[in-house]
Amino acid sequence: MATTEPVIALAGNPNCGKTSLFNYITGSRQHVGNYAGVTVEGKQGTVLVDDVSVTFLDLPGTYSLSPYTPEERIAMYEITSEKIDAVIIVADTTRLVRNLYLVSQILEIGKPAVLALNMFDEFEASGGSLDIDLLSELLGIPCVKTIGNRGRGVTELMSTALKVVQGDLPAQGKLFSYSHEMEHAIDRVSAVIEGKISYNTRFGAVQLLHFSDDSLLTNLTRDLTEEDLAAIADARQHLITIEGRDVNSMVTEGRYGFAHGIARECLKEQEEDVFAVSEMLDRVLTHRWFGIPLFLFVLWLMFQATFTLGEYPQNLIDLTFKGLGNAVATIIPPGYLQSLVVDGIIAGVGGVLVFLPNILLLFFFISLMEDTGYMARAAFIMDKLMHACGLHGKSFIPMLVGFGCTVPALMATRTLESKRDRYITMFVIPFMSCGARLPVYVLLTGAFFSPQMAGNVIFSIYLAGIVLAFMVAKVLSMVVKTSTPFVLELPPYRIPTLRSVLLHIWERAWMYLKKAGTVILTFSVIMWVLLTFPIHPDSRDWDAGHTQSRTQLEYSFAGRFGKLIEPLIEPLGFNWEIGVSLTAGFIGKEIVVSTLSTVYSIGGDSEHDGTDTDLRSALREHSSLTPVTAYGMMLFILIYVPCLAVMNILKRETGGWRWVFLMIGYTTGLAWLVTFVFVKTAPLVHLFS
Amino acid sequence: MRTIIDLAPGEGGIVTDITAEGELKRRLMDMGIIAGVPVFLVKQAPMGDPLQIRVQNTLIALRKKEAATISIEPQEHPCHGYHRTRHRACR
After folding, report:
1. Average pLDDT for residues A560-588, to the nearest whole number?
2. Given CB atoms, is A320 within the 8 Å cutoff of chain B?
3. Which residues touch A687 (CB under 8 Å, ≥6 apart)?
4. Number of CB atoms found within 10 A of residue A239's CB
5. Are residues A384 and B83, on separate chains, in Cβ contact within 8 Å?
């Protein structure tokens, strides 16, 4: 414990404005990371407070401290750990009693604490008043008024917290009593565990009585013997028998009793209902008949804005990278180095970065929905439909985002609290056909279907994706049956601070950029190597610009791989050329089109997109594709492995490669299966033939 | 035994017991649903599920299946519909 460089944690309920406060404290000096092995974000930042360098740690918002959910486990672990010198508890003053419930638990831990009475302006404006000195006295810790979304009270809060760490202010927290029998049990357990646990004895005793599943409290029970655990179980059982109810109820009632007691003494409640405005808004927004159409309209607006506004910066980035490619091409003479830099690195990285504006805009709107409180209403509205398909109300928006790009869609699944719901959602999001696949669909439908049919064909692919997603989700939800309760708070509607929203986006942008620069770069180079090497023995006789020709491609590793898997994809009606293009699709689905151009030797370096008539005729004449197998190929592309950027994000969000391999395996396998079934059954009903 | 799913929107009662177990029970109690507090059904979601309830100044959405585990003593209370300054007892 270094009081020379103290570490102070921020704890509090979700929706209490803790994040805004944290942002004001640390500004842009925050560093976002993941807690090891979990998908919970951890934020920290170091600032100077009265000439002392203090590190602030933003803990996940929790209603309680327990070993159940990842967020609560982390909050409990951090607060009780030696490295935290003090805790700032952020409370929503307009709902003080509920917030005091968490306060009571943190006081029990015994770590020095400060209470930030946040949203104080709202509280006062609606007619509430609070005797802060009395509150401070009753709690035993200093209390500071704050208005987190305007940064008021922040400096005072930081100084007070520092003084608490340095021991200049009393902040040990008053203890409260439970029922007589419970106190008796606490004494018994305390006697057993005294000196054997790293926590405060009383808190440890309460936790052990509360949570009978020892496997959850491994941190606590580490140094306890079998005898100790037996004695504790005995005390617990005795308590339950005597009181005639479970310990959970006793503990919760004790804590709420404490909270209500304090409120009675110091708090004069607001005249105006904190939900007055929210209720008005909800009459419309979650209206029985208008609620859903309104929600769909909001989403439509969101997508329109994202893709029309995003187009300008998107084109800009596209042009920049093309320009960069051209500039480099003038500096480096044609040949392998030029190809590596221009076709490999610049094209690969540029292809991923071009999505950045869309991702940022999508996240802007999602943040807006979260911070205003509308997101919870969206989950409330959509839950029935989602749940029937094995998903969760909160799955809806990430899935919708997936129609634009899978990368931000996966990141958006963070709002799903339950690991099971989150993973199932992440596993079906790739079937929401992303924007990068569209050029391939356009190419194939243009080549093999009439213009009148084209639109319907593409729509049917999208539909197939949606249906498949729901089916897979349903199956997965029946396999993984861990029940997770759906208990969602609908916070009062609030106006978000632009500052918070922008900071939110800035974090994500930075992470996306970093990943593009490292992992994407590496894999782009690897793919380039596989497509270019080994060098064809006759290459010396070719002209300089011929590095990527069909013959060369055939000879390369990628080409050989295509030949290798040809027997596997032959039943689907694909040959090695299609095989190579599909393999190249690992980087990004748009690459499928450019690889097809190379395979069918559609000349030099010019850009080929899905509307190219040369490419279309080449496909019709030279590839072995038919309308049926072309549709099969689209199905395959819809389902099979998502691109590099997605796999990278998946690795980060699930904390390991295991799930990535699983995703690759299951999507590719499913793709093969579905395509096979289609390709074999379609001719039987004379579909497309 | 009356539970929350027996309420119509606008109706309420006092919580008497929670028949859920383990994690669900804990979650409900942590959110403030404990014996002795007033609880009100605000509305149902457009598709009929989940339900939106109000308890201890908190709005909570929960599925009917889970709401059925919260037993209540129905109460007549004067608050139906929208009030700008809701009675303290009804918050």
Report:
1. 84
2. no
3. A628
4. 22
5. no
Query: A280 and B24 in contact by Cβ < 8 A?
Result: no
A383–B contact, CB cutoff 8 A: yes
Q: How many residues does chain B have?
A: 91
Taking the C-alpha atoms of residue A19 and residue A56, their distance in angstroms, rounded to an integer, is: 12
Nearest residue in A to B55, CA atom: A98
The pLDDT, as a whole number, for residue A139 is 93
Tell me which amino acid residue A280 is: M
Other Cβ atoms less than 10 A from the Cβ of A532: the count is: 21
Q: Closest-CA residue in chain A for B85?
A: A272
Sheet of A86-92: strands edge to edge?
A: A30-34, A41-49, A52-58, A7-12, A86-92, A113-118, A143-145
SS3 A45: strand
What is chain A's mean pLDDT, rounded? 83
Alpha-carbon span A642 to A341, nearest angstrom? 24
A271 CB neighbours in chain B (<8 A) are 85
Q: Worst-scoring range by mean pLDDT, A198-212, A216-230, A547-561? A: A547-561
Strands A52-58 and A7-12 come out as parallel
The two counts, helices (H) then strands (E), for chain A are: 32, 10
Contact A95 B57 (CB under 8 A): yes
CB-CB contact of A230 with A192 (8 Å): no
Chain B contacts in chain A segment 35-64 (CB below 8 A): 63-64
What pLDDT score was predicted for residue A677?
Answer: 93
Closest residue by Cα to residue A247 from B26, B84, B6, B28 = B26
CB A677 within 8 A of CB A645: no
Q: Which residue of B has its CA nearest to A93?
A: B57
Q: What is the DSSP letter of A504?
A: H
What is the structure's pLDDT at B18? 92
pLDDT digits (tens, 9 = 90+) for A292-346: 899 988 888 887 787 778 778 888 888 888 888 888 888 888 777 777 787 777 7
Strand pairing category for B51-55 and B38-44: antiparallel
Give the closest residue to A275 by CA, choosing from A369, A367, A143, A377: A377
Put simply, whether B19 touches A (Cβ < 8 Å) is: no
**Percent above pLDDT 90 for chain A:** 28
Looking at the whole model, is its pTM more than 0.90?
no
Please answer whether residues A436 and A643 qualify as being in contact, where contact means their C-beta atoms are separated by less than 8 angstroms: yes
pLDDT for B84 equals 44
Q: What is the ipTM of this complex?
A: 0.90
Inter-chain CB proximity A276 and B85 less than 8 Å: yes
pLDDT given at position A214: 64
Directed axis angle between helix A658-681 and helix A627-639, to 10°? 160
pLDDT 10s digits, A235-251: 999 999 999 888 988 99
Q: CA A299, A302, A307, A308 torsion: positive or negative?
A: positive
Q: B32 with A257: CB under 8 angstroms?
A: no
Please give the helix or strand (H or E) that residue B14 lies within, else none: strand B12-18
